[in-house]
């Protein structure tokens, strides 16, 4: 996220919100906001909320080598 924000500013964008946690959106919501040279408002987000259940552990499997 920080690298995105830096690159956007280096390529003519304007800061519209430094990278950081946005507790109003969630405990793990980390975002940065820029306005690109054409005036588009861009938000980049890292949301660490799990989107699926973790895979169950693998069972022991027997194996033979011939």
TrEMBL record:
SUPFAM superfamilies: Glyoxalase/Bleomycin resistance protein/Dihydroxybiphenyl dioxygenase. It comes from the Bacteria. InterPro entries: Glyas_Bleomycin-R_OHBP_Dase, VOC_core. Residues 1-47 form the VOC domain. Residues 1-21 are annotated as: Disordered. PANTHER family: BLR7706 PROTEIN, GLYOXALASE FAMILY PROTEIN (AFU_ORTHOLOGUE AFUA_5G14830). This is Glyoxalase. It comes from Xanthomonas vasicola pv. vasculorum.
